[in-house]
Amino acid sequence: MERPARIIVLDDEVELRNMLLRFLRGHGFDVRAAEDSKRLYRYLEREPFDLLILDLMIGDEDGLEICAQLRAQGQTLPILMLTAKGDPLDRAAGLETGADDYLAKPFLPRELAARINALLRRQKIAAGEPTVTSQSVRFGEFALDVGKQQLTRAGEPLEIHSAQMLLLVALASSPNRAVSRDNLLARARGRDHDALDRSIDVQVLRLRQIVEADPSKPRFIKTVWGVGYMLAADVES
Question: Which of 8, 84, 86, 163 could bridge 195 with an S-S bond, Cβ 3.0-4.6 Å?
Fold first, then answer.
């Protein structure tokens, strides 16, 4: 039997925190709650979680700073940010800091459940293990030997920067499947922690400039909204 998703809630309002605990447990989730960042970090050090529900304002603490700190530490669990503010700029700030979704208070419990389930589905899609390790992956005139990490165009070997090669290999390891930005970063940095910028999006743009006839209308390196990127390619043994 599949284990229930494990969720941790960070909110300093006792009433809301208890309401979230009751509601989420009633929907079959395994839930922990923290009233401040210190307790949150202790939980995260001891136990693995599938999702964090994070209030934008926790007493004197700033949820944006907590979110940024978690991402800087390499924490990749999805973050759903709650806030009493409805300003689009606050929403943009949360997403830019590393949150995966944003829900303004007051909210309907049904919407909260729907957003949680959507984030968990995305995580499952994006967390798949590489499916190709040695085959040749072809897209247009290009062919990538995944095992040898060699890219050719019309049969001729190409030289590309190591950062773009690492990213291409990470995408080619799961062709025709959406891969999250965090997953791409983790796979690509497995061999060279300094090869990639913090922004996967920048490296995707540079890779598109190499393999796409028109980078603004990508044919091979496709954006999968809400998830990450995908390499549209043919796999050969």
Answer: 163
Total-model pTM:
0.55
**Whether 152 and 210 share a structural domain:** yes
Contact 64, 94 (CB under 8 A): yes
In a domain, 131, yes or no: no
Domain end point (choices 76, 104, 126): 126
Q: Could you report the per-residue pLDDT of 151-209, keeping only the tens digit for each?
A: 999 999 998 888 788 889 888 888 888 888 777 776 665 444 344 445 788 889 999 99
What total number of domains does the chain contain? 2
CATH number at residue 214: 1.10.10.10
Please calculate the CA angle 193-194-198 and round it to the nearest 5 degrees. Answer: 95
Is the CA virtual torsion 39, 76, 194, 198 positive or negative?
Answer: negative
Q: Residues 12, 16, 18, CA angle at the centre, nearest 5°?
A: 95
Calpha distance 101→36 (Å, rounded): 20
Q: How far is CA 57 from CA 51, 69, 124, 223, 227, in A?
A: 18, 15, 29, 32, 26
- Higher pLDDT residue, 77 or 191? 77
